């Protein structure tokens, strides 16, 4: 299977970590984002939104979207389980994962789109007030995560799941590229970040 | 099972339609949003984000988030299937559902938060430029959906799924409350809306 990728992009990184946790080897194909290859008609056949990542199966069928790809990989290789083992645990992991995506990742995205790097690319006119509001919501969410992670080892409970993968990819991207590194006094959040970064699946990608 | 609800809110509506499609009867409990009941410490125990919907099981355990609840209900009552039957179909439905959520629902949310009704509530300072940008992205997404729905009967393929439930709840809310009704010339989108509204599961909630 091929994964259409771009080094440093947070969404393909989610899939690469997910695959590494399951010892699934994917052939990586770098998409030339600077050359707008992801908006070419050929690529839009693979990915209707013109985004990466995309998983291309050996028979040529494609799946776009990091979490859709991750669910497919979980079906192929169920262990180690990353989406939940029974109905209630699956719902709890989905709930925590959606909090991360809808309340943290979405706000980091707004801060990124309205920040200086995207402005320099000339793709959108930055809206400073939108960036300021999202920056504040991200910092508030970091506080909430710190409180929660003082009470449990991982985002969705006592074991590593998809919620941690999305969380670490989001926070690493926010820290490196969006100027939104968690404050030093958020010690439970820092301890979780260190715990997650130590995993072999993260060190290999 | 109890569902903490608010009439007209799009996210509880997703769960009510999902349950109705499966003939699952939920006891509805209206949350007093105007009185900020959803931010009370007791309610935050049920819903860490202070949002509706929340499903309370008969043993008192709670699941927040519309899609987490829907996945739980799918586990309890697998038919009619709404999330996918095999690995590839499940991934395709998830992909299309995520397009709706990340590219349409999220933008409707930004237009709503920065629109006149929320401004009147005094909860946030509206950012007009953010509303304008999101309005434009919503209209562009309606065009895309219209093109796609000229080629297939439902959002994720040839049958009704969770992607249609999220799509109709989003578009009905955008039309009624955010001033973002699809243009009349989007005939394939209009035909899909009519097809979905005719379902017994939508007429009963």
Describe the structure.
2 copies of one chain form a homodimer. Chain A is α+β, with helices and mostly antiparallel strands and 205 residues long. Chain A has 2 domains: 2-76, Glutaredoxin; 87-199, Glutathione S-transferase Yfyf (Class Pi), Chain A, domain 2 (Up-down Bundle), CATH 1.20.1050. Helix content of chain A is 56%, strand content 7%. The first copy, chain A, has helices spanning 10-21, 41-46, 66-76, 87-113, 116-121, 128-149, 162-177, 187-197, 200-203, and strands spanning 2-5, 27-30, 54-56, 62-64. A 4-stranded mixed beta sheet of chain A has the order 2-1-3-4, covered by helices on one side. The longest helix of chain A is centred in the middle third of the chain and has 27 residues, at 87-113. The radius of gyration of chain A is 17 Å and the shape is globular. At the A-B interface, helix 3, helix 4 and helix 6 of A face helix 3, helix 4 and helix 6 of B.
Distance between the termini of chain A: 17 Å
Q: What is the subunit organization of this protein? A: homodimer
Could you tell me the number of beta strands of chain A? 4
Please provide the ordered H/E string of secondary-structure elements of chain A: EHEHEEHHHHHHH
Low-confidence stretches of chain A: none
CATH 2nd-level architecture of the largest domain in chain A: Up-down Bundle
Report the CATH C-level class of the largest domain in chain A.
Mainly Alpha
Briefly note the structural class of the backbone of chain A: alpha+beta
For the biggest sheet of chain A, the summary is:
4 strands, mixed
Helix count of chain A equals 9
Overall average residue pLDDT of chain A: 96
Order of strands in the sheet with most strands of chain A: 2-1-3-4
The greatest inter-chain interface is formed by: A-B, 33 and 33 residues
Whole-angstrom Rg of chain A? 17 Å
Any idea how many domains of chain A? 2
Work out the strand percent of chain A.
5-15%
CATH fold annotation of the largest domain in chain A: Glutathione S-transferase Yfyf (Class Pi), Chain A, domain 2
**Percent in helix of chain A:** 55-70%
């Amino acid at each position: 299977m091929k994964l259409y990728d771009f080094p440093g992009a947070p969404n393909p990184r989610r899939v690469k970590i997910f695959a590494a946790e399951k010892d699934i080897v994917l052939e990586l194909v770098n998409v030339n984002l600077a050359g707008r290859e992801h908006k070419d008609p050929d690529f839009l056949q693979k990915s209707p939104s013109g985004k990466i990542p995309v998983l291309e199966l050996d028979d040529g069928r494609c799946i776009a979207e990091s979490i859709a790809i991750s669910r497919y990989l979980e079906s192929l290789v169920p262990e180690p389980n990353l989406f939940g083992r029974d109905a209630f645990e699956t719902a709890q992991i989905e709930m925590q994962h959606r909090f991360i995506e809808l309340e943290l990742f979405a706000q980091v995205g707004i801060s990124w789109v309205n920040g200086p790097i995207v402005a320099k690319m000339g793709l959108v006119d930055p809206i400073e007030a939108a960036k300021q509001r999202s920056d504040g919501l991200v910092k508030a969410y970091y506080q909430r995560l710190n409180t929660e992670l003082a009470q449990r080892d991982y985002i969705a409970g006592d074991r590593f799941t998809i919620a941690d993968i999305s969380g670490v990819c989001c926070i690493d991207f926010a820290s490196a590229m969006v100027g939104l590194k968690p404050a030093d006094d958020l010690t439970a959040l820092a301890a979780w970040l260190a715990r997650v970064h130590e995993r072999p699946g993260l060190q290999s990608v």
